[in-house]
Amino acid sequence: EAGVAQSPRYKIIEKRQSVAFWCNPISGHATLYWYQQILGQGPKLLIQFQNNGVVDDSQLPKDRFSAERLKGVDSTLKIQPAKLEDSAVYLCASSRDSLGTQYFGPGTRLLVL
Amino acid sequence: KQEVTQIPAALSVPEGENLVLNCSFTDSAIYNLQWFRQDPGKGLTSLLLIQSSQREQTSGRLNASLDKSSGRSTLYIAASQPGDSATYLCASDSGGGADGLTFGKGTHLIIQP
Asked: Of A32, A99, A107, B112, which one has the greatest count of Cβ atoms within 10 A?
């Protein structure tokens, strides 16, 4: 069974630029999560999808971050415009349902200069 | 709001020693508690998941315990090996179907050969 795929693995941009990350969850997993992990911290949930609907986005900075999960499979997370403090690893995870074990992708490491 | 704390933040021990990593959480109304391993530049690998009704889980040299009443979990690693060097994260799941996982900041473990 293929795991959670993410791309790109690394991205370097300048502040005020925009960037997008892509996630392909494990086949058949209805729930998809995006987490932000700042260096030295544990991951923090940004947004949770159930199929193509948003379950929780209370910690998503909506003035600059957006995410979508069209057709309930792949998902993209966008930052526009990026700030220095957005430098972090962005982790995608998926689970069969909202109470199932979460499986994590390798993450996208973002550096904002 | 759930808060998860891990002690110590870093630990370095000689190969072969048994060791204990600690995790505490403020809200005992959890659905499960999970221990993850994170290697540099990699995503999270699930090690053990303890349901709220369980007291412990074992996998090979790893044993995780859960005491909901005191808000504590421990991860015991027996006969440590250099390959165990990584950051270990614990995370609680509230089970509400939303909120995702709440993570601690992790314990950075180094096993000296």
From this structure: A32
